[in-house]
Every structure is written in structure tokens, then in C-alpha cells.
Amino acid sequence: MPKSKDLRRRAFLKATSSAGLVSALPFSAFGSPYEGKVEYEVASPGAQESATPKDHIKFAVIGTDHNHILGITAAVQRGGGELVAVHSTDPGGLAEFKKRFGDVKVAKSEDEILNDPSIKLVASAAIPDERAPIGIRVMKHGKDFLSDKPAMTSLEQLEEVRKTIKETNRIFGIMYSERLEVKCAVKAGELVKAGAIGRVIQTVNLAPHQINQPNSRPRPDWFWDTQRYGILCDIGSHQADQFVYYTGSTTADVTAAQVANFNHPDKPKFQDFGDMMLHGSGGAGYVRVDWFTPNGLGVWGDGRLFIVGTEGYIELRKYTDVARQKAGNNLFIVDQKQARYIDCNNLDLPFGRQFVSDIVNRTHVAQDQEQALLATELVLKAQKNAKVLHFAT
To answer: What is the pTM of this model?
Structure first.
């Protein structure tokens, strides 16, 4: 900061002599080390991105145990899917689903949906360890499947899913929403593919979550049972997907993993913290997940992603920019020439449209099948082999 500007700032602060006033000032009032060098952009969708879906399918839902089914269903509808039926054994989840999507037909049984030849896709957010078996039955009935994450909870389930995909030639999609349904994450993918930061060498994911959000349903019993999914298998799957996708890895493995129950002694089967190191053919990765988002944040989690390249790096503040603005979809990129901030809130989310098109045309544009399963394989291995940490209370 130039000396004259520094003196003016000191004089201003002395004149106000009010901590309350100073605390309310925008950051720009104090100058910036990047002044004149930072570019602020608002990204806008292209004509192709905002186009009306070209394809149409009928789809149904089996399993509404997790409210992620609301986002999954909305994405398929945006992409050209027509919701025709739902089946659920969870009354609370079904009530929320009907409140969101209206007077949809409630099927009396799973078979009613599986045996309807007009239905081309089944989506599910059933209890995690029930999702793969549902998906296998769906594929064996000649339909494609879209699961909430985690889509599988054991390596045995993964093996059976891979076998069924090969036998039926059906699609087993996994909604990794923290990449596929987050606009700044979509933009980051475009920048990486364009070579904006050179070759990606590492991803770092920090993914805190909140256990109970205001006005949400209490967590069900299965949520507290690690044997039914586990923290790395569950929320860690989002981060493994991002590692595989942004590094372009086609093979990968777990370097190390650890889990703990720091603060829930009344739930002995629960894990509230986990992290893992990953390595693949395209780069390295580090992931930390936890259930410690404080209420003061104002959103369910402060998801942050760092993509490190040979010529620069990208940081995503997905859901908020702490103490600066509540809006999410913040992308920061630094390369060899400059630093940029990109507001991604106006961008399109292409997954639903691409996935419906994949079902119609038997392609894999929305999601690479092998990469989707590789991400799941990583978290299943990490969960199975993680070192369990214990701390004195």
C-alpha cells in the first residue's frame, strides 16, 4: 500500500474512533494487495447450455429414505424426464416427496414399477445398503438406474453391480451432487479441461457437514450405524468422485485412511470424522469429511475444493464465502498471469439433460461409468481399511 494511502486510512480510522463502524466497512475500504490485478467475472450460460431438453423418458422412484431424492428427481425432470410413479417404505420421506412433486402415482410394490415397460429409468435414495440390490433388480428388468451416493456399501456389492452392468448393458448412474449439481464445480471442470491451470497434480477436499439442519426430519436409526454405510463411504464418495474426475485418473488406490468418533459417545457405531489420501494415474488427492458444521455458518456445510495444477490453482467455495457473502458458487483461479474471481451462480446444470440423453442414445456423456464406479471403489476400500482413532474424553 502506498505511504500516502496508508496515512489517509490511519487518519480515517482515528477520526471514526468507533470499532462498530470499522467492523461494518467493506474490505475494499482497507485496500487490497491485489488492487488493480484481480478480475471479477460473472459467468453466464451459453445458448447450448440453456437449451430445452431434446430427449424425453418416463421414470420412477424406488426409495425416498434420504431427501437427496428430491434433488435427483428434479435434475431428471429438468433433463426431460417425466415422473410417473414412486414406491417407498418410508412414510415420512414419501410425504416430503409428494409435497414437492405433487400427486404422483404411488405404486403398491416395487414390482409394479419394475414390470412397467414404459419406465426407462429408476432413481433411488433408499437406505444406503439397499441401493445396490435395488439397482441390480432394476437393470435385470431392462431399465437404467440412478442412485444417491453411496450407491454401494461393500466391495461385494460393487462386484455384483459391475457384473450386472456387463450382463445387461444398462447404465448404473450415481448422483455425486457435490460436483454434478454445483455450478462452480461444473465451471471448474470446464477450466481444467481447457488447460487453464496446466496439468492437475492434486485435489484437496474439505467437506464439513451438519447433522441436523433447522426444520429437517430427525436422522433415522440407520444414519447412526457405521455398518450400514460409514462416513468415508458416504460423504467421502463425493470427494473421491471429484478426485477421479479432475485428475482424470483411470486407475487409483487409497494411500491411507482414518476415521473417528470424536463427539458422539452415545452413538458408539457412528463416525463423525474421517480423512483419506488417494493416488491415481492422474494425480494425488486428500479428503477430509466431518459432521462438525456449526450453526453460525448459516448453511449445511462449508465445502471447499482446491485443484492444484502445474500452471496455477483453482479454489471453490461452494456453498458460502465465510464472513464475506452468503452466496455460494464462488470460484477463484490463479494462473501465471493473474488472479480471477468468477461468480458461477448464473450457470446451467447440464447433468439431468445429459443423463436423459445418455439413456436414449446409449452414451456416457453425463457420467463416465468406469470413473463413477472407481470413485465408489476407492471409498469402499478406504472405509474397510481405515484406522479407527480413539481419543481420551
So the answer is: 0.89
